[in-house]
Write a structure and sequence with these properties.
Elements (H helix, E strand, L loop, with lengths): L10 E5 L28 H14 L3 E5 L9 H9 L6 E6 L4 H10 L4 E5 L5 H8 L4 H12 L5 E6 L9 H10 L3 E5 L15 H12 L3 E2 L11 E4 L7 E4 L12 E4 L4 E3 L7 E3 H6 L4 H13 L21 H4 L2
Parallel strand pairs: 1-2, 1-10, 2-3, 3-4, 4-5, 5-6, 6-9
Antiparallel strand pairs: 7-8, 8-9, 10-11, 11-12
Helix pairs in contact: 1-9, 2-3, 3-5
Bound molecules: S-adenosylmethionine and iron/sulfur cluster.
């Protein structure tokens, strides 16, 4: 699919659930999480229908996210079914890793192409403070489990908050000792994220270079679906990456759209622009009608985010990241 600005859209991120077993401070509130009534969440067959239609329109890569996607009880089955859809080339999962040890075998058998584990720190107390759960060991068990499957790519995603005990160098070291890429994701002012200043790419890069030596831009074949800038460091098995949506805006090359767990097709992270696909599907639309609505949404895909500007209107997203999928 090509949007009105000529951007090629071939990547769909699907939030399969709004439920989560952590409560990261920049993503969800501690208490009073308003969970969506189950009947309002997309059913498996509805997700599959949307993916089939999207594949006909040119979507090639799917990311399953959440909330926590491993809480979706038929995730391996869903992955296998999506992989069987003609045109779909890759299905990957973004998870906090807590349930990975138990579920990795099923995910591998289903044909999962890659796993991203969100891991902000290796410090137990800091992990507890950020995620509001004392579950660092479970997450690390999950990471170790994925490493037992060398055919499945593993990336670690870390959102630096600027706290000293988060120790970003310890997280980066995972890429020195293991064949994994560690990516630092800039905090975005969405939902609860707006309350945290985060850390700029430059600051972070300086800290890492001081510890590990020069980071040299990676020039090889693309390593994923998106805008991550990768670097190589002496003696590292994996790469270090930066995804800095705010300070190094990449909207001009945006290749993605999002589907919320309630079936809303979001065409930009910052704005509510998009279409309610659940409603038209439950009203009995044909595949051609569904395609028309998807094309119409694409036609209105915003040119980019304006995180650094004061909001001019009220079409900015009010959902928190666990409801969107990141
Ligand atoms: N629960 C899964 C996980 O944590 O990987 C999937 C959903 S989570 C919303 C997806 C990603 O969004 C995580 O890597 C998380 O750190 C990131 N995220 C959440 N809020 C964010 C924010 N305000 N800015 C940047 N990244 C954020
Ligand atoms: Fe849950 Fe992921 Fe949000 Fe953390 S970032 S609260 S793990 S959805």
């Amino acid at each position: 699919m090509i949007d009105r600005l000529g951007r090629k859209i071939d990547y769909l991120r699907i939030s399969v659930t709004d439920r989560c077993n952590l409560r990261c401070i920049y993503c969800m509130p501690e208490k009073g999480v308003k969970l969506v009534e189950r009947s309002l969440l997309l059913r498996e067959e509805e997700i599959l229908r949307i993916v089939s239609v999207m594949a006909e329109l040119g979507i090639r890569k799917i990311k399953l996210t959440g909330g926590e996607p491993l809480l979706y009880c038929r995730l391996p089955e869903l992955i296998a079914e999506i992989k069987a859809i003609s045109g779909i080339e890759k299905v990957t999962v973004t998870t906090n890793g807590i349930l990975l040890k138990e579920q990795m075998e099923g995910l591998a058998e289903a044909g999962t192409d890659g796993i991203n584990v969100s891991l902000d720190t290796l410090d137990r107390e800091c992990f507890r403070r950020i995620s509001r759960r004392d579950l660092l060991d479970k997450s690390l068990d999950g990471v170790r489990e994925v490493l037992r499957y060398p055919g499945i790519s593993l990336k670690i995603n870390c959102v630096p908050l600027g706290a000293a005990d988060q120790d970003v160098c310890a997280v980066a070291r995972l890429a020195r000792e293991n064949p994994v890429h560690v990516r630092f994701i800039e905090m975005m002012p969405i939902g609860y994220g707006a309350e945290f200043p985060g850390m700029t790419e430059e600051t972070l890069k300086n800290i890492l270079e001081e510890r590990f030596g020069r980071l040299v831009p990676y020039q090889g074949a693309p390593l994923g679906n998106g805008p991550c800038k990768y670097y190589e460091a002496e003696g590292f098995a994996g790469k270090i990456g930066f995804i800095s949506a705010v300070s190094h805006k990449f909207c001009g090359e945006c290749n993605r759209i999002r589907l919320t767990s309630q079936g809303y097709l979001k065409t930009c992270l910052q704005y509510t622009a998009g279409r309610d696909l659940r409603e038209i599907i439950r009203n009995g639309c044909t595949d051609e009608e569904l395609k028309d609505v998807i094309r119409a949404a694409l036609n209105e895909k915003p040119d980019g985010h304006h995180f650094l500007e004061k909001a001019k209107n009220d079409d900015t997203e009010k959902l928190c990241m666990s409801q969107i999928g990141g």
